[in-house]
Amino acid sequence: MGLDLSLQVTESGGRNKPDAPLVPERTYVTQVRLRRGWLGYREPETHEVLLDFTRRRRINLDEGARTYVDESMYSDVCFRHFELHNREHVRAVIAAGKGDTSDFEPVIMEHQLSVLDKARGRTLADAAAPRSTGLGGLLRSAFSGPKKSGDITVKSEAERTVYAAAEGRPLFAYSDDGTRVEPDLGRHFVQFLRYRYHGHPLILERLASAGHLPREIQYSAKEMRGWPRSTVTLRLQSANVVPDSGIPLDGYRRVVRGGPGLPDDATLERVTLGAAPDGTQVRQRRQLEAKESVDAGRMLESVLAYFELTLQTGEAVPGLGEAIQSIPDADVRRFREVMSRPPSDKASASAMAPALVELRAAAGRHAHVLKSFEAGARRALNEPQEARALLLDVLKANPFFTGAYKDLGDLFVADWDMGAAWRCWDAAKNIAPGHHLLNDVSAMEEMLAAEHPEYF
């Protein structure tokens, strides 16, 4: 069975600017659907969000247009994972300057991002835990040692369970009364909280194991001190048992939405949702292009046809390296020299970029392959906008150039735009899912799933 919930949500606290008046309190109703394998939530004047845990995808429904966007759930988790370390760096900088680090203390950051720094070994310290009895309790008391200063305190107060940081700053509270639910649905409710409102992982795990949906939940310190909406209260208005069901996508059409710095929507949709070019046909086309270039005496153009084959499909070309070494052509020799020194530092990148520009004329119809290499040099030179423009040029010439989507995604990661990064990588995976260039994307997804299994 499933559950349909109605929650009254009140957000309050904070200012848009230090000298501005308080942001007015905001109250709205959120509808939540809990099902086995997925959940959905809807707020006023917004479209419904569906989280598909089976496929690890986030789906945004546009009910008016009868379309939906289907994107990776990894992008959200990735941002939170690396932002935790980023904020720890900010805290260290502030501390070095003798500033106030209270808004950047690790437990607060874990609460606001809903990710746990496992190395800190944080625990929940129950202030009024029952006295341990028996031999087992005696041994636990003897060997557990004192609680660390970084622990989160837990206490009962006015028929509520209240959590606070060690220095007393409130974090989270929920009423002890509520609606009993099956464990799986209770955990799905906590997933909704985690994705929509965040919350410290240890607190959410305790709530997930409670076996009920509290009548009221209050977030404190949800945002940094003084920021708007730092206090959020959720009140359960209704909980109705309904038949379980699959994700409701009948009558909807999947679309892909890009954004600044990405190929246009039509190209992304074609590449991400359409059939990828047949690998055999791509190989035959590149071989024919290479032969035509050789016959016309355009040797560099011929060589780049084979590089494009590899960068699109992942297929290695046997003997290509030896062939390049033996071609007595000035442009090929220059290309070989340039590519022998990867842009691992500013000096080599500074030499590579202009050399590749000079070779464009000799590259002919495969000049965009040189641009894909030049983009790497521009990135090494800390010229991300130039690198992005080059990669977009590559994709205009060949919308199925897997390597360009991979590199474009990497640029978006550097900009902390994880959603755009995975849109690029989704396109690359559809073209050539087994491409070796995507191995580190798969490795990152595996790391995120291992470090933060509670999200999946």
How would you briefly describe this protein structure?
Residues 1-22 are annotated as: Disordered. This protein is α+β, with helices and mostly antiparallel strands and 456 residues long.
Q: Order of strands in the sheet with the most strands?
A: 7-8-9-10-13-14-1-2-3-4-5-6-15
Portion of residues within helices: 40-55%
Biggest beta sheet attributes:
13 strands, mixed
Arithmetic mean pLDDT: 92
User: Which regions are unreliable across 5 or more consecutive residues at pLDDT < 50?
Assistant: 129-134, 136-149
β-strand amount: 15-25%
**Tally of strands:** 15
Tell me, what's the shape? elongated
Q: What structural class is derived from the secondary structure elements?
A: alpha+beta
Q: How many structural domains are formed by the residues?
A: 2
Radius of gyration: 27 Å
Distance between the termini: 20 Å
Counting DSSP H or I runs of 4 or more residues, the number of helices is: 17
Describe the structure.
The chain contains 17 helices and 15 strands. The protein has 456 residues and is α+β, with helices and mostly antiparallel strands. The strands form two sheets. The chain has a 13-stranded mixed β-sheet. A two-stranded antiparallel ribbon has the order 11-12. Helix 4 (183-196) packs antiparallel against helix 5 (201-208). The longest helix has 23 residues, at 74-96. It starts with a strand and ends in a 5-residue tail after the last helix. Residues 1-22 are annotated as: Disordered.
